[in-house]
Amino acid sequence: MNVKERVLLIAETKGISKTEFFKEVQLSYANFKGGQKNTALSSDAMVAILSKHPDISPAWLLMGEGTMMRKDERNVVSAPPAETAPATAEGLGIYRQLVNALEQTVKAQEKTIQSLEGQVSLLQRK
C-alpha cells in the first residue's frame, strides 16, 4: 500500500466522504485516482493531513509502519503553521520522520528516472 492509498484509507476509516476529506486538507481528489494514485505525495500535503488529523500516526502515513491511529491520544501534537511551530522534541521527531520518508521517495524516484532514461536511450537508437 502506498502513501496515497493510506490517505484514502484514512477517509474511509473515519467515515468521511472523499470529497469532504480532500476539501478539508485542501487537496484534489483527482490526484488520488487512476495513475495519479502511484505518484508521490508532497510534504506539504502530508503536513496538512497530519495537522487536520493529529490522531493519525506519522510513521504509518509516511512509511506504512505500525498502526494507523496513534495509541495514546494525549501525546498527539497538532502542528501549528510552520512560522510559529514550537521546536518540541515530538514535533521535531515528526518532521524527521517526514524528511526520512521523503528522502526514501526521492531515492526511489531517482532509480525510476534512471530506468526511464535508459529506456528512452534504447528507443532513440531504434
What does this structure look like?
By secondary structure, the protein is mainly α. Helix content is 57%, strand content 0%. The protein contains five helices and no strands. The longest helix is centred in the C-terminal third of the chain and has 37 residues, at 89-125. The radius of gyration is 17 Å and the shape is globular.
What's the helix and strand layout?
Elements (H helix, E strand, L loop, with lengths): L2 H12 L3 H7 L18 H10 L5 H6 L25 H37 L1
Question: Keywords for this structure?
Answer:
126 residues, mainly alpha
Discrete helix count: 5
- Ranges where pLDDT stays below 50 over 5 or more residues in a row are 73-85
- Per the principal axes of the C-alpha atoms, what is the gross shape? globular
- What proportion strand? under 5%
Distance between the termini: 37 Å
- Largest sheet composition: none
Series of H and E elements: HHHHH
Computed structural class:
mainly alpha
Helical fraction equals 55-70%
Q: Report the count of strand segments.
A: 0
> Compute the gyration radius: what is it?
17 Å
